[in-house]
User: Fold this.
Amino acid sequence: MIEPRTIRFTLNGAPVSASIMPYETLIDVLSMQFELKGARESCGQGLCGCCTVYVDSKAVSSCLYLASFAAGTKVVTVEGISRGASLDLVQQAFIDAGAFQRTSSQ
Assistant:
């Protein structure tokens, strides 16, 4: 029987913990446990970049990155890169390029 385990990491500057299964990806944990929807799974192959997050300042495809690898790291999502009320250059580039996704409820 596969047992869940608890991992701890820093998420957008705040310490957090998550109960994960060994096969769960980081995108699933970010979406389901922390309700962060900025990074999204699209291709499921790490090719499109929709799921990109920073782990210890390196861009990773969170659809392929096992959540267990995030233990003890610093994870930053698109929601966490803003500087208060002003947008980060990456966020502004998304807007300038029209690079956004709509959810089915929009």
Summary: The longest strand covers residues 5-11.
